[in-house]
Amino acid sequence: MFLRQLDLTTALRPSLLPDETLLFVQDAVGLYEGSYKLPNHQNGHAYLTSHRACYVDNEEPRKYSVALELKDVDKSDFYAGFLKSSPKITLYPKPSKRASLTPWGPPLSVSGSARLSPTSTPPTRHGSPARSFAPSPVPPVTTATWICPICSFSNPVPTNFDPATANAHTPLPPCLACGIKPPLIHVVKAAIAGISKRQAPVVAPVPQRNFDPFASLSQTQLAAAPSFICPRCTFENHPSLIACEMCGASLVSAPDKRLDLSDAASRRIESPGPFLDDQSIESDSVECVKFSFRAGGEKIFYERLKGALVQRKWLLYSAPPVPKPNNPPGAPQNGRSTFNASSSSPIPEKGIGIAGLERRGAELRKNNEVVIGSAFEDLEALMTSAKEIIALAEQFASQASMSSNGNASEANALISQSASALGLVTTKDMLGSGSGSESLYVSELSRNLAEFLTDDSKGILKREGGIMSLVDLWAVFNRARGGVELVSPADFEKAAQMWDKLKLPVRLRRFKSGLLVVQGRDRTDEKTIASLRAWLKELHFDIPKDEVTWDWTHFGRGITAQETAQRFGWSVGVASEELEMAEEKGALCREQGFDGLKFWENWLVELPVETPGSSQQ
Amino acid sequence: MTSTTTDFPFPPHHSFPPFYTLQPVLSTRTSQLASWSHLIQAYCRHHRLFQLSLRDAADGPLFYNRALGRRLSLKDAREVVEWMASKEGGERAEWVGDKERDRFWVWWRRPEEWAGVIAAWVEATGQKNTVLTLYELTESDATASQEFHGMDPELLQRSLQILVKRGKAQIFGSDDSLGVKFF
């Protein structure tokens, strides 16, 4: 199954797997299967993550949202659009995912697919999801070579060598000429260079008009070769630029102005293509899936898609753990390693008592040293061991925060936890442009906020008693972003006001004084009043601390905003606003005394009002 | 004029602390003002008071609950009286003199009502077409059992004026010795 049903978060965005990060969002996207439109999948958001390409429908997101695992993607094509035909990105499934008789036969890229579909699994690595495929019909041919640093002999990179997963465990063959094992980094570099070279000859099976010859280059080459030609001055810009370096024209979606008849036309949902009438979205025989970009954003989507396909973060998820301390440390670096991952590791010694603990600590430190040392030697090597380094960094961070006397407030702790967990950040550069760029940013931010608030693991709203002021939320949210891509107050307020429109589970509420607060949709005024009333009822049985002169068994006693804040975990500002709300609804009445404002059950409305004179008339 | 024979039994809400803070919310405030109006009228009826002075009453038991340590401020008390005097409050009070706004009539029975009560008494005792002095009406033993016994002379005059207008009575005589004849 190429297209799968997609799980959505409370805010109707794709729920991400651990380690998955959001790369790009674009609205006004339609979905094709083969050359047919998929019914009910013609107006939605496209989300590109490090692991998947997702389509979330605008109308019925829970029903018509699908995802496509990038690991199942064999290759991708870019079609720039022509006259009234929107730009499209085509994704082809891997051969094993395709029906046996596809019109195009075996994909051309198989010759270069050593990295895409490893056919022989090294014995040390098990359980990687990418390895469960049937072998490709054509044996992979490797073209990558590494030059021995000792004797300069040009050796082939082993076919099963994968630069994304390689680490100190990976067995490396010695140089064919001198028999000395190469350093890991050396081979990784050579393999990556080989991959980027191999990418170039891959040709799309169906030649298309307006096909950008640069589009099929890998990201590494793109970094060197500028590919975005400015539509105005034809200057070749670096692909990561949004505006032309020369003339400042927007590069993001640079449709020909003559073709762009109107905003409405560029966003049209009804496009002339035929619809697919059967509902077999999840059938096995998908030949390819097309994303049609009706409001631009296709170029950035394609760039990031290619980046994600090269980086293949999903492999990291199943990458082997940090090297064990009882392996000979530093083996890959000194070039004369004798270790054989499967056989040479000695039986781990069992440390007993304090000595054992100390030894274990020393080994752990040594191991950390090795990991950090090797990681920072080279950028590519850092990429291969990114997972370990991130784990280490998080561990150090938690140790650092523990040693700071626990001074950090709850919010700080929360932020340090969530900063790394906050994978779903919405940033302006993550979103496609086009006619609705600004509103797309705001609505994505709005969803992002709703997720941030309702995330049970963080429990931000719960910690604040189910209600918090918008200003507080803004501060916490921006701090959780770690100081980058901060949200402006104006955007923030706009995003918060979108909650109602997007039917998200949180709502923005404006108190009489103008204070804006955030609370769950299920928390209504009636519920607040009911809980206040229940509390005041309790006070009828609660013997007052001081001598009181009124009948407290009948009237209870007055409560201040401070007490209320304490009782319900609200801030004092929120508490007094809630009390005033209840007062306005007639549930409470106030007493302005020397010791401040107190609120009481409203006995005043239940008093007899008839006058003696009228009663006698 | 005042007869403090027994203590006035204050209603329970007289010792409800928020009763002494004028409420900002309209519906609650209306109910509160009505209760105050009710309380003031009942208090005056009990003590047979026809006029009150805000300044004097502010320290009295009506507006100042010493046991509770709460009092209705002069300003709020004035609000209450204003409300009582308004149409909404049933015109149960009236300022004495327009300027000072200190003394006020408490109409636990309005002059028209008093007129009705007196006319009914005259009818019941068969004193139509006889002449009675005003002093006789309020101070004689014959009226001791009546509510208008010991009534404020100014109020009595106002009430009789209403009867005169209706053509049911006639007042004659000079300032000191006024007489009234009922028809």
Question: Could you characterize the architecture of this molecule?
Answer:
The complex is a heterodimer of chains A (617) and B (183). Chain A has 617 residues and is α+β, with helices and mostly antiparallel strands. Chain A has 4 domains: 3-107 and 251-311, Pleckstrin-homology domain (PH domain)/Phosphotyrosine-binding domain (PTB) (PH-domain like), CATH 2.30.29; 129-197 and 316-342 and 351-403, no CATH class; 413-514, Arc Repressor Mutant, subunit A (Orthogonal Bundle), CATH 1.10.10.10; 525-606, Winged helix-like DNA-binding domain superfamily/Winged helix DNA-binding domain (Arc Repressor Mutant, subunit A), CATH 1.10.10.10. Chain A is 32% helix and 14% strand. In chain A, the strands form 5 sheets. In chain A, strands 1, 2, 3, 4, 5, 6, 7, 8 and 13 form a 9-stranded antiparallel β-sheet that branches. In chain A, strands 14-16-15 form a 3-stranded antiparallel β-sheet. Chain A has a two-stranded antiparallel sheet with strand order 9-10. In chain A, strand 15 (506-510) and strand 16 (516-520) form a beta hairpin. The longest helix of chain A has 23 residues, at 353-375. The N and C termini of chain A lie far apart (87 Å). Residues 97-142, 200-226, 254-269, 319-345, 404-409, 413-425 and 609-617 of chain A have low confidence and may be disordered. With 183 residues, chain B is of the alpha+beta class. In chain B, helix 1 (26-47) packs across helix 3 (74-85) and helix 4 crosses helix 6. The longest helix of chain B is centred in the first third of the chain and has 22 residues, at 26-47. The mean pLDDT of chain B is 83. The chains are: A alpha+beta (617), B alpha+beta (183). The interface between A and B is medium-sized, with 29 and 35 residues.
